[in-house]
Design goal:
mainly alpha, 424 residues
Length: 424
Amino acid sequence: MKKFRMTKQYLNLGFAIIIIGILAGMGANALGYVLSITEKLFLNFHENSKMPVSMLIKPEHRLISVFVGAMLASIIWYFLHKKYHLTSVNEAMEGKKMSVKATVLTDLTQSFYIGTGGSVGREAAPRELAAMISQKIGDFSIFKFDKEDIQLLIAAAAGAGLAAQYVAPLSGTVFSILLLHRVYNKKNIVVSLSMSLIATLVGSLREGFKPYYIVKTSDFNWNCLPLLIILGLVLGFLGWKYKGIINYAKYKKLTNKKVLFMLPCAGLLTGIISIFCPYIMGNGRGITQLAYNTNDLDLDMIMTLCVCLLMKAFITVFTIYSGAYGGILTPSISIGAVSGILIGFIYNSIFFSNISLISCALFGSVGFLTATQQSLLLGIVLIVELCHINTNILLGFMVVAFVAINVPGLCMHLKASYKTLFRV
């Protein structure tokens, strides 16, 4: 009897994995189409790795697009907050219910706002939508899932949403297990990986298995080791601090009438910056691709990269604080890529090295993303899957990620030691 019950439980779990995986992929595709249609209507272009931002329209067109998008998004989010509590994935895992209407509307609004040029990541919407679907399916009495299984399904679904969005099954699995559920056993790995694979196959129907970023060349040799340690230390510290700033912005996020003023201000500021720096628009793909295309720097390019770095870091925080919802994965990748190029350029100039700046950009993306997510594997796996790069650079990624993830602990240890010595 017990064996029969276990078999039935696993069959129910397998059936749920297939259904949720398919729906997570379909949801990510639907949100992707909303974003693409919005870009076509507002910015008159179709985003891809060769043209990640709208460069061919007039600068004032970009300004009007993101400003109007911010105004409309602010109205929707204001009325959503008046009627609903917008439950996060982490709250859902704790047992709080996600409203179908509120989740769908806020995810559509995220995709719409990013499509007009809003500066947040696009991966949060498919994660939330998939988690909501998983929670509703898990509540069906026919399945008789316990609390642990429902938590697992919600975490796996959120990872599947990420996987479907970027056609990155391993990244979705790592995100689910290491960042959300944080329980490491064979059952969780099988459920998360299976669901991410199914969602990825469905998600790939929209644009195929193309790389999200085009990387012309990437290499690693032991001459890079000192630079990798420097990148890990610097970007590990900056990413750790930036994560704290982002978390503070989320904690202080405007949900009252102020959002009707502040979010359009964020949109207007984004639009003004885009007049002379169009790469600032969207989720950061334009800045990252610019960095991955750069293997030689002149003064104009240095100035462009510096503006992209500072403005993207600021405007993403300001947009989130002003009431917008969205992810920070791709903005973090862009900030890390530009930081990596600039640090690599300084290193090459001082030590007369000839390390590829494209490789520096890749190392920077891994280091900063590792620090902001505090996950040793996610930064490595996500960049590999997004860029479809050769595995010979993996060793460099591992060194940067290992150094970067240990920087917060090192800083806190040094701070504690300083306080002890100071008291003495």
